[in-house]
Amino acid sequence: MTATAAPEAATPRLVPAPRCTTESLVALFELPFNDLMFKAQQIHRQHHAANAVQLSTLLSIKTGGCSEDCGYCSQSAHHGEVEREALLEVDAVVAAAQAAKDKGATRFCMGAAWRGPKDKDLDRVTDMIAAVKALGLETCVTLGMLKQGQAERLKASGLDYYNHNLDTAPEFYGQVITTHDQAERFDTLGQVREAGIKVCCGGIVGLGETRRARAALLAELANLNPPPESVPINKLVPMPGTPLENAPPLDPFEFVRTVAVARICMPESLVRLSAGRQEMSDELQALCFLAGANSIFYGDKLLTADNPEADRDEALFARLGLTAA
Ligand code: SAM
Ligand code: DTB
Ligand code: SF4
């Protein structure tokens, strides 16, 4: 009798594989700073060009009035103080994307303050994606949680990346956000992967979380299967009116350690030094690049918060011998 091999089960995607544990990442955090930096730099050079930094430009396409209560966010209807703005027209978005391209950005990321998009909203957003893609830019959107079928529509319009962060450790999540939970975020990430869109997923630190919580967040990210192609590490920008407006600032070396541990546990991902650069010295940013950050948001605005002027970044790149990629 000839045995017929059982058909191989489809490899489950986004099922956490026990590749790294919170404990193993806490151990990295606890290394002497020089040892951690050396390890991160070694891994960085095995997987990436040593001196290249990718440039993404952000645009808020719908601002404020969000139903969610994320404690750090200026755009929450619960506490945000930013001026609300309806969904932008496609032409305005294309003009901003062209300007970003002219300045040297290679990826254009459009963000909306929604719990998630309505199908009707997606009509215009998919037009934006197609038009930005036609300029020769990589496209990224961050629109909140998706419903069945929406990821496929985004993919069909030419979307390269979907940004959707896990934001903070599962055990801390409920202290910062009560209107949704992390399981809902995983669900959207699964839909994005299934649709064949690349995943941009990271988090935010400086919320008053412990080092262990930072390690737990990074373990969750690294154990996504596969890990996110792009990992934004945001440092809290304290926004007026938000519950975290007066959060005690994170030790800058702890921030650098977070970047280094992200680089080590996600060797192939782009690690983006995201929100918070405006408040950082050039020297601190240089340490972040040394720790393995190889992408930034480029342009004087994030979504509602300030970001360094392009001139300052150009001068920083020249001082450090970095090249834009
Ligand atoms: N509403 C969508 C969502 O929450 O996924 C997309 C936009 S939301 C503003 C994108 C990310 O920005 C959040 O996941 C969070 O990590 C980051 N963020 C928001 N406010 C911030 C702040 N004040 N400082 C640093 N990062 C922040
Ligand atoms: C991400 O992780 N950081 C960006 C992007 N994804 C959309 C947003 C940062 C927002 C910073 C606060 C603000 O501009 O309101
Ligand atoms: Fe809304 Fe996103 Fe801000 Fe949360 S982070 S309040 S979901 S815009």
Describe this structure in words.
This protein is of the alpha/beta class. 39% of the residues lie in helices and 14% in strands. The protein has helices at 22-29, 33-47, 90-103, 119-134, 150-156, 170-176, 182-194, 211-222, 252-265, 282-290, 310-320, and strands at residues 52-62, 107-112, 138-142, 161-163, 198-200, 203-205, 230-235, 270-273, 295-297, 323-324. Strands 1, 2, 3, 4, 5, 6, 7, 8, 9 and 10 form a ten-stranded parallel β-sheet that branches. Helix 2 crosses helix 9 (252-265), helix 4 runs parallel beside helix 5 (150-156) and helix 8 runs parallel beside helix 9. The protein is globular. It starts with 21 loop residues before the first helix and ends with a strand. The model is unreliable at 1-12 (pLDDT under 50).
Structure ligands? S-adenosylmethionine, 6-(5-methyl-2-OXO-imidazolidin-4-yl)-hexanoic acid, iron/sulfur cluster
What structural class do helix, strand and pairing data support? alpha/beta
Largest sheet: 10 strands, parallel
Q: Separation of termini? A: 58 Å
What is the helix/strand order? Answer: HHEHEHEHEHHEEHEHEHEHE
Number of helices: 11
The level of helicity is 25-40%
Extract low-pLDDT stretches: 1-12
Mean pLDDT: 94
Strand elements, count: 10
The best one-word shape is: globular
Query: What's the Cα radius of gyration?
Result: 19 Å
Strand coverage percent? 5-15%
Quick recap:
With 325 residues, the protein is of the alpha/beta class. The protein contains eleven helices and ten strands. Strands 1, 2, 3, 4, 5, 6, 7, 8, 9 and 10 form a ten-stranded parallel sheet that branches.
